[in-house]
Amino acid sequence: MSETVGQAAEHDARTLGALLATMPAVERVIASEEAQPLIAQYGRTQVLDAIRATQDAWRRDARAGVLANEDKDTEPFSLERVIADTVRRLAERTQSRLRPVFNLTGTVLHTNLGRALLPDAAVEAVVQALTQPANLEFDLASGKRGDRDDLIDSLICELTGAEAATVVNNNAAAVLLLLSALANRKEVVVSRGELVEIGGAFRIPDIMSRAGARLREIGTTNRTHLKDYEAAINARTALLMKVHCSNYAISGFTKSVELDELAPLARQHGLPVAVDLGSGTLVDLAQWGLPAEPTVRATVEAGADLVTFSGDKLLGGPQAGLIVGRKELIAKIKKHPLKRALRVGKLTLAALEPVLRLYQAPEFLQERLTTLRLLTRPATQMQEAAQRALPALQRAVGDAYAASVEPMFSQIGSGALPVDVLPSSGLVVRYAGKGGSGRALLKLERALRELPQPVIGRIADDAVRLDLRCLESWAETAFVAQLAELRL
Ligand SMILES: *Cc1c(COP(=O)(O)O)cnc(C)c1O
């Protein structure tokens, strides 16, 4: 005679109760010999929390029937298993959320992956600043209070040809501060072709209104003439502003007014011209075969009264916003209360100075400035690295995928010329099984992200692509070794 449904449920409840009763008490686990090294490493509170979390999860699983098929002889809730699960939980819980990854996206200055990587000299300076007191705002000559900008402004002026300089948290802050200090309740004239959105919610019109400045748009999206600027100038005008088209290009029937044309008009009306350069390189990149970007020095020489640019884009330094230009304008900017709110910390200054010093020896720049070294790596280097990694990758992905070495194009990133310009090479993995490849590629891309040091690639043209430009030789062994841990 078969059991009724009610009897079956009662039986299950009894066995579930018996099963849960085998779970060792929290007190026993925490007092066990195995728990002592965990307590020494993580502290009693965290270990207790982790044990409880393990047991709660198991109770839930048992009630949901997930453990139903467990072989009863193996003691699903043995002390050993509780400890093992607790160890895993503690490791997971205490792992840093900000983790190193392999940037194989092909974008060198990847905003989401932290932009510029810093040279050793900067790393050493940051370690010192972190662990020892420093003369951040202390004038060693007079023994009096100093200004943190003094540590670095003359170096910035030397490298840019500007009269004065100041540094804030990032370039968005630099633009906000500049507009707040010079154009509050006044008008700023900007061409419609330069009303940029950078991404991450930086939009020129929005920053303008936050700064209390009135945007005076002129011209059209594709064409703006000098006479448009001229017609817009009135008694309320504070500033003429140009914004570098960092992440887009307007081509075809176009006209924009160059700085050397605009500056004389501004001077005639006694108005300053500000240029938001975005990336703002300090050296001519064309000498290394890279796309030409306007340098800060050339922009100053062409008549800009103020120039703003980022520290962690082509400059290759820490996140920062640099403002250079005429002395009296910089002085006004530095006096604004927002300067105090947007100022940089000592870690930024510590990192920025040695990076700027590299520019004083331009003949070594390509080798020593990490960003430039990565941008100028020849494709053959990446191709050779890809060949070396190929067997390990093919083994890791198995027969369902086919890995190969192929040429590809890297990008500079962070808005410096948005088109593919840097010939590179890397690993390409296609799905070799039957049916559509979409899911299989997503699965592989995720498995790469789940490696101990996540590998970030991209899916394009029906393949997972790993551009090896940013995998320098010192990191190659680690990259290849962990491929064995890929779980597909
Ligand atoms: C990148 C960029 C910004 C923002 O700079 P952050 O340093 O990211 O704040 C502003 N303007 C332009 C033209 C840019 O390219």
UniProtKB/TrEMBL annotation:
Tell me where it mainly resides: cytoplasm
Q: Which domain of life is it from?
A: Bacteria
Domain L-seryl-tRNA selenium transferase N-terminal residues, every copy: 24-59
Family, according to the entry, reads as follows:
Belongs to the SelA family.
Q: Name one GO biological process term.
A: selenocysteine incorporation
Xref: InterPro entries: PyrdxlP-dep_Trfase (IPR015424), PyrdxlP-dep_Trfase_major (IPR015421), SelA-like (IPR018319), SelA_trans (IPR004534), SelA_trans_N_dom (IPR025862)
Involved pathway(s): Aminoacyl-tRNA biosynthesis; selenocysteinyl-tRNA(Sec) biosynthesis; selenocysteinyl-tRNA(Sec) from L-seryl-tRNA(Sec) (bacterial route): step 1/1
* Pfam families according to UniProt: Se-cys_synth_N, SelA
Concerning NCBIfam families, the annotation shows: selA
Molecular function GO terms recorded: L-seryl-tRNA(Sec) selenium transferase activity
**What Gene3D superfamilies does this protein map onto?**
3.90.1150.180, Type I PLP-dependent aspartate aminotransferase-like (Major domain)
Subcellular location field: Cytoplasm
Q: Which reaction does it catalyse?
A: L-seryl-tRNA(Sec) + selenophosphate + H(+) = L-selenocysteinyl-tRNA(Sec) + phosphate
According to the UniProt record, what class of enzyme is this? Answer: transferase
Q: Which cellular components does GO assign to this protein?
A: cytoplasm
Protein role: Converts seryl-tRNA(Sec) to selenocysteinyl-tRNA(Sec) required for selenoprotein biosynthesis.
N6-(pyridoxal phosphate)lysine modification sites are: K313
- The catalytic activity of this protein is classed by the Enzyme Commission as 2.9.1.1
Gene name of this polypeptide: selA
Taxon lineage: Bacteria, Pseudomonadati, Pseudomonadota, Betaproteobacteria, Burkholderiales
Q: What organism is listed for this UniProt entry?
A: Paraburkholderia acidiphila
What is the protein name for this chain?
L-seryl-tRNA(Sec) selenium transferase
The protein's UniProt keywords, in alphabetical order, are:
Cytoplasm, Protein biosynthesis, Pyridoxal phosphate, Selenium, Transferase
What cofactors are annotated for this protein?
pyridoxal 5'-phosphate
